[in-house]
Amino acid sequence: MPHRAADVARAGRSTSAPTHRVSRCSSGFSPRTRVCFAVAALVACFVACESRRAWARDGAAEDAATMTADGGVPDAARPTDASPVDVRPSRPAPLNETTVVAPALPDATPREDRTAAATVLSPRQSPRATDDLGTLLLEVPGANVTRTGGFGAFSTVTLRGSNPDEVRIYVDGIPLNQAVGGAVDLSTLPLGDVERIEVYRGSAPIAFGESALGGIISITTRTPGAAQASARVGGGSFRTVLADATGGGTLGRVRSYAGLHVLRARNDYPVNASPIVGAYQPTNRENADLSQLDGVVRAALSLPGRRELRAGLIGVWRDQGLAALDVYRATAARAETTRALAHLDYESREDLGSSGRLRAALFASEVRDAFSDPLHEIVGVPTRTHDRTRALGARATGEKSLGERAKLTVVAEGRDESFLPRNDLDPATAIGQPATRQSAMAGVELDARVPRLDLDVLPSARLEVARDARTGRDNFGAELPPSAATTRALPVLRMGLLRPLGARAALRANGGYYARIPSFLELYGYNRGVLGNPTLSPERGLNADLGVAGGLEGPAGGLTASATLFGARARDLIVWQTFGSQARAENVASARVLGLELELRARRGRLAATTQATFTDARDESLIAANRGRPIPHHPRTRGYGRLEWRQPVARAGLLASLYADLDGTAGNFSTPSLPLPARLLVGAGAAVEHPGSGLRLVASALNLGDSRVQDVPDYPLPGRSFFVTLEWSGGASHGGPPGGPLASNP
Fold first, then answer.
1. Within 13 Å, how many C-alpha atoms sit on residue 726's CB side?
2. In the list 65, 223, 363, 696, which could disulfide-bond 174, CB 3.0-4.6 Å?
3. For the whole model, what pTM was predicted?
4. Model confidence at 414: pLDDT above 70
């Protein structure tokens, strides 16, 4: 696992002095970049104004405003993937006219928490030929993704100035954050079977069990349903090839779904040669190839009454080369990961009475990581490791209405995790000491309505307890004798408020106290390169936000928008300090974060727009004089994303064509407290042609059209200009026109 320790440092947690060359770039946007952002802002304003004028012209804006008091859309009017909403005007259509609508706005209502600042994403609504989770998160305000390369390279996400470890990620309710430590690698989370992604910023809904200072990312794979099938093939730059196949159906009371996905890429994109005299100077990225196979199987059984039993299995296998710093040569370092996730869920609306809901889940996971560096190109010494991490857990959630004005939610969770390291090239400690953690959580939340104030109040409290058993290592890397188990208990408190502002908007506020228990890697170290620190204290922090969200829905289109002020203060932050060739985690830092998030999604007829902007001031308030008052690395001051989409029918051919263009901008980012990264503006575009009658869809997209040579982590360059093309067929329930709405032809 030495490569995992290196990944932690790459994600911006190291406090050691920088050893790489200093960039001479400014952290502010150039005049040309500012002009591009101004143009994008004007386009967004134009779309919003045109949409508002259209609603006024139709005279139906007031009657068709279907937004609920909590900022969501009622079930009857809510667009879903399975049943797109046709928002065409009701006027009679002329003969021989083909009518098309823009992509429908995604369901903006989070499932687990009405008061949270949350964004809901659907991969099906992406116009790009191929995506990963990091690319989709560009649309989320407050999110910042740090990458170390192309397809399959280590990637992490932060939310609102948090550390990557403070963001918890779930797939079908299974927690992916491991007690062994290190942030979840986004590149290992395939999207081929994902139906919905919910991002809760700064809040941890009680239904997920454990808390998180940064927030929660919840990924839901496709729900078993009616008969469906799809297939996709594609390829693109840097010798990338991909293929997908999915299918599902029903057999009696059993509904099932399965998907299989293959991805291969060489990732040999051009890079700038190092200016350092005598350094290795490749012209293309080396030893960064990727081979991946992943799939999912889900089934649901309807039981008597309003009860259901669901089961799922997710598997991922990956083999990849590990590129070194661009001033060194790497030819033999490789990593292999095998992951299996399984869950069994039970849901009932009968067992707790007609006004209650019971959910219970069993989940298990196993991850096997193999790392080989025989020529010590990555770690510094010859290394071959085989690590195994296992987890088994259960969660139960009960909800019960207390009259007409209150609802009580109670949740309990328990989990057992184990980690066993092995280093074949370390004869003294070939098999490391196993680490185990037993954790439990119990919490309660009250959702109460105060009619006199027209206010919803959601207080919650939970207690998280963890018990660790593990030996450590001394300063020379030798195993220490077993010590007594350590138990830690952390209280977590949160308050959420929701007040309607008329029928179309709502005011939301949240405040909470959160904590994070140190990981195995931080507490106990690994082999000779990473020292343990069993005396570490848990990270603790306070956060709060205040925002307004709402929208409009009319015959001519729709609009949702939100603006949120947020802040956080964290103490006892865990950072990595280096001592020669070794690293050790220390409680030496605290931080203060302030910011503003803006989000807008609009559509009118054939045109749709998606925009977000985040302004963050994240400052180090640690006791280290050299860092105090400086920006926290990898938390840019300004982040923005915008996309415009246009759909155009081709009536005679029965086709639907679409175009999109997007901008992704970042400024004020730092790789270390004193080393700024260049401001950047990346431009993308694409086109698609689909034939709804046959279910065929051809998509072509381009990324980084300006061929900007950028880096999130110094000496780990990202790909430049790249192109991808996919051809997809879908049939059955998965076939019904584009995600945004049907293509209707009138003879």
1. 22
2. 363
3. 0.82
4. yes
